[in-house]
Specification:
The radius of gyration is 32 Å and the shape is globular. It has five domains: 201 residues, Sandwich (Jelly Rolls); 74 residues, Immunoglobulins (Immunoglobulin-like, Sandwich), CATH 2.60.40; 256 residues, TIM Barrel, CATH 3.20.20; 97 residues, Immunoglobulins (Immunoglobulin-like, Sandwich); 288 residues, Beta-galactosidase, Chain A, domain 5 (Distorted Sandwich), CATH 2.70.98.10. Helix 1 runs parallel beside helix 2, helix 3 packs parallel to helix 4 and helix 5 packs parallel to helix 7. The chain has 991 residues and is mainly beta. The chain has ten helices and 61 strands. Strand 22 and strand 23 form a beta hairpin. The chain has a ten-stranded antiparallel β-sheet, with no helix packed on it. It binds 1-methylethyl 1-thio-beta-D-galactopyranoside (IPT). The site of 1-methylethyl 1-thio-beta-D-galactopyranoside (IPT) has 12 residues, from loops. Belongs to the glycosyl hydrolase 2 family. One of its GO terms (molecular function) is beta-galactosidase activity. This is Beta-galactosidase.
Length: 991
């Protein structure tokens, strides 16, 4: 065959020769062979290599071997190119439908055997479940066809090309094609045959496709079957043994809806499935049916008559080593983890997942928004000119994608909404896709966020709406226009249920304000919750120059254009470790609410339909975090949406310790996703007796001194602390800087932001402008009394006249060393501050400080707008575990509301620090880390931090909130930290 530029790469058409219509991904008993495994592989830099490799007799001895499924850029240690990460940008010139000649092209070959007994098969079908982005197929040298639609299934009839015995299949995969313009999702570009390849024998008299549409209404189930089979294949039998259903349809015309009694409904909470078979004499198909009815009534989205609240996540398919290659065991663990964290919904952003994922969602119980493989986001840069969503030339491509999406997965009870795609502007092709779905499936609504005005979709959906805007959408009281809507369109949108298909951008340390959104969902029934962006980081496991493993993000593979660490925005780190945000989410959306009132507690079941029979309730009382009593709490059964009162136990209140009552709701029995005893909801009640805070002892007889002295366990030279309890310690030094979080580094959009922000400028830039990361000190005075030392420092930054006066008073109070720091900013500071704290350095002595025990909020880090997962108690952690390994190092580890802290070295207690609240009752927090904020801020990856044995203790009078500004609202004003005077009081003693 002549060498030529492949004609296919610029074809807008979705391919040629694949079987249509698409059909369900079914579990059939007909013979099939997996063609997964080792294939021969050759990578070429362009699409123009000769096609002779497809010939029957071609000798591929010199080729490499590659596993299928896989992405070639993740195989061969970089020998086959490297991944590219972009969010919105196209990593090639925007020249639709053309792509560059530099178009990595992978040729694949393998032999396979067709058994002799397949000769009675009516047809032999070759199925590809996922190939990125365009591929052509040959069998025994015969060209079979081509297809695009990377995350969609494509089947080819290869009957006339195969023979009994040995066969050769050859596949050519182009990384770039016209299809790349409609697959511009925010993720790594990962070419290759990355899902299963299967050869299927289709029998005469088999079932081509089946759709069991189920319904549920007040204890009655219904099944409406659609059977695609030749008339000669009949009779067709439907069996649901557990329900006593055995129904035979003699001929196609007999297929009619059935009513089924004694049915338990399917819900995400109680995912009741019934095994079913649909069979002919030649083929039997196994399905698991769940009975549920999805409807929109007014502005409410209901399943089985009850309103659904989506506590969801956006789920991409991503794995640090396999990319988008599906691993069922890992996916099951991931979904079980979601359930453990009270997540009840998944949006399959932004394409259909591996089909088995939906079997798992049916089984474990999730409300699924199943999204089509469509995103044309890069056209935004061209003001959407030429957008495939609105160009008739692309209509068939768009329709082909949505048909393949719906047809493949239509049997799943977990799927309650179809979504047309993501960030593809708007246009006639999207409207046509929606019309097709409406005609095909009347049982599920259609979602697409980009249909702002609600012309062709059923749900009002938005992403990253701020809290006030969400409230405006939820409340009936306002007539103001919605985003991009005329008043009439706004009114139309207000008649629909609302959901946030993306919100709370979980990039790095953040987001804040989960609880503010949840409060709105509780208040306004039209608001149906949403889907956090996103479930997990997409880091790719790589090796640093020093040999350390790390999780790579955009730019780490020297991509020409990339979007940095915007791909690391999950509530789970790349290595499956839940971040504090996931714990926060779990606490905010907990399905049981406790409201204390005197000696009683009101228990409200916030679930969709499940009662509390699967839960047991426990209480415990702690004195300063030490358990003193516990027991079971008798709570009457609470139906979904109802409340019940229960009596609280008698709590023994300690006179000289804090007394806290904690209630947990836990699983009474193991489930498929968590063991018995797994806690799903918690509440705490402070029962402490009021205790006075020791007043500050006035001292009058200050006189100048040289500041070299000892006070209890503290030794000072020149007014500066040098030792505590015999070990080197320096400080306190004013610390106003935190290693900026991703949200801190994100420019303000100037909309609805606090007065302190500057449009287009990040908080971190303002902090650096003001020199918060490079403060210097001038000692103004040193004074003592008989048992006290006082220093006054003026702290400011180069080329700035702004300053902070810091007065530190060391004294002996009640026989203990007390440090009081008075922090007072000058006038003129314009921005929010990241923190107001003091830092101590504990350099490596013979035994470095390597851990902490504390009584305060824990166990994980908390910030002013992300406090709900914190509970008051006693906790301990190593210095390493006090920090979260965010993919890009940043502020981490702040523990709020500290009462008492013990620094440890191994099992030795080194220093005790007791924290006194300020006159307004506010308590500081602490951070203990191996690195200073300045060091952390300089590192782009954890491996760049270097080893250290010095520990840095920062006691913060206050910290700034987290917000969600990387993609969404800034820190809510109430949680923003403004320059202000603060006092920190500590009592320090030897361990
Ligand atoms: C939004 C995208 O839909 C999502 O895929 C992801 O990229 C997210 O942003 C950010 O991580 S689009 C955004 C421009 C609002």
């Amino acid at each position: 065959m002549p060498s030529q530029l492949s004609p296919h790469v610029s074809d807008i058409a979705p391919g040629r020769g694949a079987l249509r219509p698409a059909r369900s991904w079914l579990h059939s008993d007909t013979p099939s062979r997996s063609l997964n495994g080792a294939w021969r592989f050759r990578l070429s830099p362009t699409a123009s290599v000769t096609e002779d490799f497809a010939a029957d007799g071609f000798v591929d001895d010199g080729w490499d071997s590659i596993p299928v499924p896989s992405h070639w850029v993740l195989e061969g240690d970089g020998a086959y190119g490297r991944p590219i990460y972009t969010n919105i940008q196209f990593p090639f010139p925007i020249d639709p439908p053309h792509v560059p000649d530099e178009n990595p092209t992978g040729d694949y070959r393998r032999h396979f055997d067709v058994p002799a007994d397949w000769s009675d098969a009516e047809r032999v079908v070759l199925r590809f479940d996922g190939v990125e982005s365009l591929f052509r197929v040959w069998v025994n040298g015969v060209e079979i066809g081509s297809a695009s639609g990377s995350r969609l299934a494509h089947e080819f009839d290869v009957t006339s090309a195969v023979r009994t015995g040995d066969n050769v299949v050859a596949v050519r995969v182009h990384q770039w094609s016209a299809a790349s313009y409609v697959e511009d999702q925010d993720q790594w570009w990962l070419p290759g045959i990355f899902r299963d390849v299967t050869l299927i024998a289709r029998p005469a008299g088999g079932i081509e496709d089946v759709w069991l549409r189920t319904g549920f209404d007040h204890g009655r189930g219904s099944v409406e079957a659609e059977i695609t089979a030749d008339a000669a294949a009949f009779p067709v039998t439907l069996c649901i043994p557990e329900l006593g259903v055995e129904h035979v349809w003699a001929a196609p015309a007999d297929v009619a809806p059935l009513d089924v009694t004694g049915v338990e409904p399917w819900s995400a909470e109680r995912p009741r499935l019934y095994d079913a078979t649909v069979s002919t004499a030649a083929e039997s198909i196994a399905l698991r049916v769940g009975f549920r009815t999805v409807e929109i009534r007014g502005d409410q989205f209901l399943v089985n008559g009850s309103r659904v609240v989506f506590h969801g996540v956006n789920r991409h398919e991503t794995h640090p080593e396999r990319g988008r290659v599906f691993d069922e065991e890992h996916a099951r663990e991931d979904l079980a983890r979601m359930k453990q964290f009270n997540i009840n919904a998944i949006r399959t952003s932004h394409y259909p997942p591996h089909p088995r994922l939906l079997d798992l969602a049916d089984e474990l119980g999730f409300w699924v928004v199943l999204e089509c493989d469509l995103e044309t986001h890069g056209f935004e840069k061209l003001d959407w000119v030429g957008n495939p969503s609105d160009d008739p030339a692309w209509r068939e491509t768009c329709l082909d994608r949505i048909r393949r999406t719906v047809e493949r997965d239509k049997n799943h009870p977990s799927i309650v909404i179809w979504s047309l795609g993501n960030e593809s502007g708007t246009g006639g092709n999207l409207a046509a896709m929606s019309a097709w779905v409406h005609a095909r499936d009347t049982g599920r609504p259609v979602h697409y966020e980009g249909d702002y005005t609600g012309e062709y979709t059923d749900i009002y959906s938005r992403m990253y709406a701020s809290v006030p805007e969400t409230e405006q959408i939820g409340s009936d009281g306002t007539r103001s226009a919605l985003l991009n809507c005329t008043p009439a369109q706004s009114a139309r949108q207000r008649t629909k249920p609302f959901l946030l298909c993306e919100y709370a951008h979980a990039m790095g340390n953040g987001p804040g304000a989960f609880d503010q959104y949840e409060a709105l969902v509780r208040q306004y029934p039209r608001l149906h919750g949403g889907f956090v962006w996103e479930w997990r980081d997409h880091g790719i496991l790589a090796t640093a120059p020093d040999g350390k493993p790390y999780y790579a993000y955009g730019g780490d593979f020297e991509e020409v254009v990339h979007d940095g660490n915007f791909v690391m925005d999950g509530m789970l780190l790349s290595n499956d470790v839940p971040t504090p945000s996931l714990h926060e989410f779990k606490a905010v959306v907990q399905p049981v609410e406790f409201v204390f009132d005197g000696e009683k507690v009101a228990v409200t079941n916030l679930r969709h339909s499940a009662d509390t029979s699967d839960l047991r309730f426990r209480w415990r009382v702690e004195h300063d975090g030490i358990p003193v009593a516990s027991g079971d709490l008798e709570i009457p059964l609470v139906a979904a949406g109802e409340s019940q009162w229960a009596s609280l136990p008698q709590v023994a209140v300690a006179p000289d310790a804090e007394t806290w009552l904690t209630i947990d709701a836990a699983l009474a029995a193991p489930t498929s996703w968590a063991p018995e005893g797994h806690v799903i909801a918690t509440a705490q009640l402070d029962c402490s007796a009021r205790r006075p805070v020791p007043a500050v002892r006035p001292q009058a007889d200050w006189r100048p001194g040289d500041g070299t002295l000892s006070l209890g366990i503290a030794e000072f030279t020149g007014g500066s602390l040098v030792r505590l309890a015999g070990r080197p310690v320096t400080g306190p030094r004013l610390e106003l800087f935190r290693a900026p979080t991703d949200n801190d580094e994100s420019p303000s959009d100037g909309v609805e932001e606090s007065d302190d922000s500057v449009a287009g400028v990040s908080s971190a830039d303002l902090w650096r402008r003001d020199g918060l990361d490079r403060l210097t000190t001038r000692r103004v005075s040193v004074e003592h009394t008989a048992d006290a030392l006082r220093t006054l420092d003026k702290v400011s930054a180069a080329n700035s006249a702004l300053c902070v006066m810091v007065e530190s008073i060391w004294s002996i109070e009640d026989g203990e060393l007390e440090l009081r720091v008075e922090i007072e900013p000058s006038r003129g500071w314009q921005t929010v501050w990241p923190r107001i704290g003091v830092r101590f350095e504990l350099p490596d002595g013979t035994a470095p400080v390597d851990g902490a025990q504390w009584f305060g909020l824990g166990p994980l880090e908390t910030y002013p707008d992300s406090l709900r997962a914190g509970r008051t108690g006693r906790f301990s952690a190593t210095v390493h575990d006090l920090s979260v390994d965010y993919a890009r190092p940043q502020e981490t580890g702040h523990r709020s509301e500290l009462r008492r802290l013990t620094l440890t070295s191994g099992s030795t207690e080194v220093l005790h620090v007791e924290v006194l609240p300020d006159t307004r009752g506010r308590r500081p927090g602490f951070t203990l880390s191996r690195h200073t904020p300045q060091q952390i801020a300089r590192a782009a990856h954890p491996f760049e931090l270097g080893d250290s044995t010095t520990s840095h203790l920062i006691v913060d009078a206050a910290q700034h909130g987290l917000g969600s500004r990387t993609c969404g609202p800034d820190v809510w004003p109430e949680f923003a930290l403004r320059p202000e005077s603060r006092t920190i009081r500590l009592r320090i003693s030897e361990g």
